[in-house]
Design a protein that fits this description.
The protein is mostly helical and 377 residues long. Helices cover 64% and strands 1% of the residues. It is built from 12 helices and 2 strands, in the order E-E-H-H-H-H-H-H-H-H-H-H-H-H. Helix 3 packs antiparallel against helix 5 and helix 7 runs parallel beside helix 9.
Amino acid sequence: MNNIAVRNVGSSFSDSKPHYDILDGLRGVAALIVIVYHVFECFDWSPVPHGYLAVDFFFVLSGFVIGYAYDNRWGKDLDLKGFFRRRLIRLHPMVVMGALMGAICFIVQGNTRWDGTAVSMSTVMLCMLLGMFMIPLSPHSSIDVRGNGEMFPLNGPNWSLSFEYIGNIMYALFIRRLRTPYLWCLAILSGCLLIVIATGDGYLGVGWTMADNGFWSGLIRMLFPYSIGMLMARLFKPLQMRGAFWICSIVIVCVTCLPLCLGEMTGWVNGLYDALVVILIFPSLVWIGASEIHIGKTTKHVSRFLGNLSYPLYAIHYPFMYLFYAHIGFSGDLVSIDKLQDVWLEALLLPIGCVILACICYKYYDLPVRKWLSKHH
């Protein structure tokens, strides 16, 4: 592996194989798109209406990186216990932090559901505890403090992290054992199911609730990107191109900026678009992103910064969105974009504040906690 294209992460908690700088940077670009999407989620217009697809890009990246990092280590220096330990240390500290911030923001917001009903402090603490242990809530649960049917009411995006955990478990137990032809079959089958779900629902923004078969939709939404990413890790041969980070970043932004097609007669078109982006475009971007041989200093610094920022930003940003939604009166019905004239400063400062907080969490919490856990466990 060309050591210009990837970097050795020499910390005690990192995987021993080098990491792709470009892929780390693209993960950060996708995280920023998620932030913008969530800021505008309450309005009837968004600059990134397909921003929810950034989650699917995360899944493709995760499948590729996990396959690349671990496939040839089983039975040598890695067993099930070691794999799960590494993944928990990598992911769970920020899960705990996200649930804690969710509880704090909910209390600051007034301990009330979106419909105005009061929630007891004990219920909030129980919801926080379940979130810390990644235990999803069923629809209409009395512990659903938001009243919106989310799996994780105090930090909605944790639904995707829960499927990340499921994907890790599936990989460790059986996907890694599949010979390449069978992995092809899994990717093709799950890709077909993804098209069915996307065209049936009209879009791929599924998996965040257990209602309406949401768990199974979310499982397929994770399974195809994971399996195609792992398949690419086995088959990967670099294209030896330049400018991959900037090219891929522009494409990611472009595919999320296209308007939605959710009319009565055209909803399936929007779903088909979502599915094709996930099936064709995102795997291509990961392949291209992993192919750049020579990385300039500016690209390297930007990619490393965005890569370090991406997971903390994704894990902690949404509780502050809840505060923003409460501030503008969003409780399920979309707010006119004209309202932005009154809250433009808050809408601008919100993502900036989340980025700053994510940087602080990464440097003073996530990094030290992972180092300590790796040393003592």
